[in-house]
What does this fold into?
Amino acid sequence: MRAEARTRVIRAVVALAVLGALVASLYVWRPSGLYLWLKAVHVIAVISWMAGMLYLPRLFVYHCAAEPGSPQSETFKVMERRLLTVIINPAMTVTWALGLWLAYDGGHYTSGWMLAKFLLALALSAMHGMFSGWVRDFASDRNRRSERFYRLINEIPALLMVGIVILVIVKPF
Ligand code: HEM
It folds into this structure.
């Protein structure tokens, strides 16, 4: 494994360990209003995750127009990598960790809306995985997909978000 990749893995493991310790200590300590505080952090993480999931495909669209090896293309590579590793990946981890805890603590895991939300969140996470692969493709100048493809893909995270928010707020079933 390259030194840079190893540093990234170590950082991710440390961040997860700190988050786990924080959540565990809050769970043992149980200050009043814990559920609402963790729900607030969940929504903050959701906003950060979505911001990245909506912006990254826009970067892919502009990146398609840049000649491989050009200064613009190299700048897009840095922007895409940083957006993914600094914002999107940690935000998704926190969203999942706290979302699952809220589902358990609030007893929501048996509700129909929760199951549907879970499936849409899984679909969003699968998109996230595909975006990571495309960041790697651009990084090694191996992108073969068109600008139009990325423009269309850009709409999917937004549609998933609309469905998820309606499910969790309206709780229609
Ligand atoms: C990744 C898996 C996720 C799980 C397991 C999860 C689970 C939950 C649970 C159990 C609640 C508390 C509901 C309540 O107290 O009524 C909640 C709140 C919320 N979640 Fe998620 N969530 C996830 C991802 C997301 C995503 C991707 C979004 C948006 C795109 C989102 C948006 C929200 C919002 C806006 C609330 C606050 C709702 C309210 O208080 O009325 N969640 N989530």
